[in-house]
Structure formats: C-alpha cells, structure tokens
Amino acid sequence: KQVLLEVKNLKKHFSLSRKTTLKAVDGVSFQIYQGETFGIVGESGCGKSTAGRTIIGLYDQTEGEVIFNGKDVHSLNKHEKFQMQKKMQMIFQDPYASLNPRSTVREIISEPMEVHGLYPNKLERLERVYQLLEDVGLNREHANRYPHEFSGGQRQRIGIARALALDPDFIIADEPISALDVSVQAQVVNLLKKLQDEKGLTYLFIAHDLSMVKQISNRIGVMYLGHLVELTSSSQLYKNPLHPYTKALLSAIPIPDPDIEDKRERIILEGDIPSPIDPPSGCVFRTRCAHAMDVCARVKPEWQEIVKEHFVACHLYNGVETSESVGPKINM
Ligand code: SF4
Ligand code: MG
Predict the structure, then answer these.
(1) Atom of ligand 1 nearest to the CA of 301
(2) Checking CA distances to 233, which of 19, 113, 135, 324 falls within 20 to 30 Å?
(3) pLDDT confidence bin for 323, thresholds 50/70/90
(4) pTM of the model
C-alpha cells in the first residue's frame, strides 16, 4: 500500500482573544493510502471539517505537517501551492452555498480550468464540461441552467463535476451527503464510488454519522474534541470497537434487519461535548465516559496501535498485549 497523504501531529488552534484559544484540531496523525476512502467521523464541533480544511491548505496549520505526494502542503511556495490545487480538491456539505447562483453550470465547471489554463480552446473546454456532466450523471442540456433550477442531489453532482474538472488525485468530501434526502444519499455515495473506480481517486470522507461513512470507507478514524480516539478498518471498527466513544456511536445505529433481535445495550452519552476552548484535562472524553478512572483526569491517553492497523487512545488498553485477543471486554 502506497501512502498518498500523511498527517503528522496536526494542530489547528484559533486564537479568539488574547487569552482564549480554540483548539479545533489538537494533534491528529494518520495516513491515507492511494486509492482508498478514509472516513473521519465525529459529532459537530469535533474538528473534522477544520482538519479537512487544514489538510487541503485552506487554513495554515498551528503545528504539525501534512505531506501530500511527498511534499509538505504548508511549506509550498505560491506557485507550488497553485499546482497542488489541481491534485487536491474539496466537495462541501451544502452544494447550494458553494455554487455561485449567478453562474451557469457551464461557467461553474469551466472556472477552475480557466484559472489553471487547462483546455484553452473554448470548444474543447465545452466538450470537457459535457463529459464531466455525463460522468456525474447529468447531461449537456444542464450546462446552460443555473444552480437554483436543480435539486439538492443534482447540485451536489454539479459540485462533484467542478471538483473533477482539474483531474485531481485526492478529494476531501466534507459531509457531502448530510444535507441530502435519505433517498438521494445512497445515489451520491454510489456515484462517488463509481468515480473512484473509473478515475483512481483517493477520498477523505468526513461525516457526523457512522452509518454514512460505513458504505464507502475502507478505514475510519473517529474524532472527538479535536482528537482522534480510534482508527481502524471499517469492518474491524464495526466488529470490534475499542474506544468507549466509538461504542456509544455504534450503539446508536439501528440494526437494519428487523428479523435480528437487537440485544445491544444503548449507550446514551450524558452531557454535551465540552468546549474546545477549555477541554478536560487528561482524556478529552472523560466527562462523558462511563469507564473513566482516576488516571483519565491526570494523564492524556497515548495513541497506540493495539492490534495491527487498529489504533486507540484510551487508558483501558494500557499494557494490553499486542495480539488478537484484545484486552478488557466492555459489554455493548
Ligand atoms: Fe474513558 Fe478513560 Fe478511556 Fe478516556 S481514557 S475513554 S475516560 S476510560
Ligand atoms: Mg462540519
């Protein structure tokens, strides 16, 4: 497996005033392999969107590194950064807000190509727009219409076509289906999968709900209050979640088959997410964790690879042997 993107101890803090700092992303590390979909999941305010925006270079980082294709995203000069934009694109949650209402679909999709001087021949560029519309399940008749003439799902398709215009390798999709009707969500996920196969794309797929990332992700990282708390393959995360927060998120997903009796215990998380301005000492999850121990308030749990390719930050797994039989069993 080839690493396309490596995030090393990434921090993004916003200073709100002289004395208050919002630690939106507070030290996350992970790698994304070429051709995979890496999901990041967490409740709103956990820092997942900020992480995405910092990774793609829309925000400067406070600390840490983002290495894309062997280059540090945040130490590129202007020209290199401009070149890198071709390879890294972003899709947003609200397609309507991200499309200029006064531009036609043709203009919206052409713009990145114009900016980067691709397809300078107007006819060729128009052909390219038509091709992109077809790639995303729209057609050339749509080219001269305006965003408001489309449904939410169609607008997201337009956003995807625009992201594809520069032929990128890597796309960050920030909650691309959260604002869509449930019936449309699966269609957009299927489209993203089809495009991934056809074009060899790598995705970072951000969502607030585990059921949304499950369909598309090869691996999933779970974020809480600016930190990654667990990271492993999708199947492993569903079969053998380790972190108490992941268990709580999973227990909230209904079992789809009505013939299977749902024997799981619902884990209700008490209280709200603490403020990232004044996060808890030690483990950031401790104020809502049913298993919190004394040590959890004093010591920040280490990010450890407990089993191969299964990372977790939780004191319950301290001193656990690296083997298939993973330590303390917690009833779900
Ligand atoms: Fe809960 Fe402690 Fe693990 Fe944090 S480190 S998740 S408080 S048991
Ligand atoms: Mg967000």
Answers:
(1) 5
(2) 135
(3) very low
(4) 0.92
